[in-house]
Amino acid sequence: xxxxxxxxxxxxxxxxxxxxxxxxxxxxxxxxxxxxxxxxxxxxxxxxxxxxxxxxxxxxxxxxxxxxxxxxxxxxxxxxxxxxxxxxxxxxxxxxxxxxxxxxxxxxxxxxxxxxxxxxxx
Length: 122
Hints:
Elements: H1 4-7, H2 22-30, H3 32-55, H4 58-78, H5 82-94, H6 100-119
Helix pairs in contact: 2-3, 3-4, 3-6, 4-5, 5-6
Protein backbone atom coordinates (compact mmCIF):
# COMPACT_ATOMS: atom_id res chain seq x y z
CA UNK A 1 0.00 0.00 0.00
CA UNK A 2 1.13 3.56 -0.65
CA UNK A 3 1.95 5.51 2.45
CA UNK A 4 0.85 9.12 2.92
CA UNK A 5 4.38 10.47 2.58
CA UNK A 6 4.86 8.70 -0.75
CA UNK A 7 1.50 9.61 -2.15
CA UNK A 8 1.44 13.31 -1.35
CA UNK A 9 5.06 14.17 -2.09
CA UNK A 10 4.86 14.17 -5.87
CA UNK A 11 4.91 17.94 -6.19
CA UNK A 12 1.31 18.85 -6.94
CA UNK A 13 1.64 21.89 -4.69
CA UNK A 14 3.72 23.41 -7.49
CA UNK A 15 0.73 23.42 -9.83
CA UNK A 16 -1.10 26.75 -9.80
CA UNK A 17 -4.34 26.64 -7.84
CA UNK A 18 -6.16 28.20 -10.77
CA UNK A 19 -5.19 29.29 -14.26
CA UNK A 20 -6.45 32.82 -14.89
CA UNK A 21 -8.39 33.02 -18.12
CA UNK A 22 -9.74 29.47 -18.15
CA UNK A 23 -13.24 30.72 -17.42
CA UNK A 24 -12.90 33.44 -20.06
CA UNK A 25 -12.09 30.77 -22.65
CA UNK A 26 -15.23 28.89 -21.67
CA UNK A 27 -17.24 32.12 -22.04
CA UNK A 28 -15.88 32.52 -25.57
CA UNK A 29 -16.92 28.96 -26.41
CA UNK A 30 -20.41 28.82 -24.90
CA UNK A 31 -21.32 32.39 -23.89
CA UNK A 32 -21.54 34.16 -20.53
CA UNK A 33 -24.86 32.64 -19.47
CA UNK A 34 -23.85 29.09 -20.36
CA UNK A 35 -20.44 29.42 -18.74
CA UNK A 36 -21.98 30.83 -15.59
CA UNK A 37 -24.45 27.96 -15.36
CA UNK A 38 -21.77 25.35 -15.99
CA UNK A 39 -19.49 26.94 -13.36
CA UNK A 40 -22.30 26.93 -10.79
CA UNK A 41 -22.91 23.23 -11.47
CA UNK A 42 -19.15 22.57 -11.25
CA UNK A 43 -18.97 24.22 -7.83
CA UNK A 44 -21.99 22.32 -6.55
CA UNK A 45 -20.78 19.01 -7.96
CA UNK A 46 -17.25 19.55 -6.64
CA UNK A 47 -18.52 20.32 -3.14
CA UNK A 48 -20.58 17.11 -3.23
CA UNK A 49 -17.80 15.03 -4.82
CA UNK A 50 -15.20 16.12 -2.23
CA UNK A 51 -17.63 15.26 0.58
CA UNK A 52 -18.26 11.87 -1.03
CA UNK A 53 -14.51 11.21 -1.34
CA UNK A 54 -14.16 11.95 2.39
CA UNK A 55 -17.04 9.58 3.20
CA UNK A 56 -16.26 6.59 0.95
CA UNK A 57 -14.36 3.75 2.57
CA UNK A 58 -11.32 2.32 0.87
CA UNK A 59 -12.06 -1.19 2.03
CA UNK A 60 -15.22 -1.45 -0.03
CA UNK A 61 -15.21 1.35 -2.59
CA UNK A 62 -11.79 1.75 -4.20
CA UNK A 63 -13.19 1.52 -7.74
CA UNK A 64 -15.78 4.20 -7.02
CA UNK A 65 -13.14 6.44 -5.45
CA UNK A 66 -11.13 6.10 -8.65
CA UNK A 67 -14.14 6.95 -10.82
CA UNK A 68 -15.09 9.96 -8.70
CA UNK A 69 -11.50 11.21 -8.79
CA UNK A 70 -11.47 10.80 -12.59
CA UNK A 71 -14.64 12.87 -12.95
CA UNK A 72 -13.32 15.53 -10.62
CA UNK A 73 -10.01 15.69 -12.53
CA UNK A 74 -11.77 16.29 -15.82
CA UNK A 75 -14.11 18.96 -14.49
CA UNK A 76 -11.35 20.76 -12.59
CA UNK A 77 -9.22 20.98 -15.73
CA UNK A 78 -12.10 22.58 -17.63
CA UNK A 79 -12.11 25.48 -15.16
CA UNK A 80 -8.33 25.73 -14.85
CA UNK A 81 -8.18 24.30 -11.32
CA UNK A 82 -4.87 22.61 -12.09
CA UNK A 83 -3.72 21.75 -8.57
CA UNK A 84 -7.07 20.13 -7.80
CA UNK A 85 -6.96 18.27 -11.13
CA UNK A 86 -3.43 16.98 -10.45
CA UNK A 87 -4.38 15.75 -6.98
CA UNK A 88 -7.54 14.10 -8.32
CA UNK A 89 -5.44 12.40 -10.99
CA UNK A 90 -3.10 11.10 -8.32
CA UNK A 91 -6.04 9.70 -6.34
CA UNK A 92 -7.48 8.16 -9.50
CA UNK A 93 -4.17 6.41 -10.24
CA UNK A 94 -3.52 5.32 -6.66
CA UNK A 95 -7.04 4.32 -5.55
CA UNK A 96 -6.39 0.59 -5.95
CA UNK A 97 -3.37 0.58 -3.65
CA UNK A 98 -3.52 3.65 -1.41
CA UNK A 99 -3.82 3.35 2.37
CA UNK A 100 -6.25 5.24 4.63
CA UNK A 101 -3.69 7.83 5.72
CA UNK A 102 -2.66 8.63 2.15
CA UNK A 103 -6.29 8.77 1.05
CA UNK A 104 -7.12 11.20 3.84
CA UNK A 105 -4.08 13.34 3.08
CA UNK A 106 -4.94 13.51 -0.62
CA UNK A 107 -8.56 14.45 0.01
CA UNK A 108 -7.42 17.10 2.50
CA UNK A 109 -4.99 18.48 -0.10
CA UNK A 110 -7.81 18.44 -2.68
CA UNK A 111 -10.05 20.42 -0.31
CA UNK A 112 -7.28 22.99 0.16
CA UNK A 113 -6.57 23.23 -3.58
CA UNK A 114 -10.26 23.73 -4.30
CA UNK A 115 -10.54 26.44 -1.63
CA UNK A 116 -7.46 28.21 -3.00
CA UNK A 117 -8.83 28.14 -6.54
CA UNK A 118 -12.25 29.38 -5.44
CA UNK A 119 -10.57 32.23 -3.55
CA UNK A 120 -8.99 33.36 -6.83
CA UNK A 121 -12.32 33.57 -8.67
CA UNK A 122 -13.12 37.12 -9.71
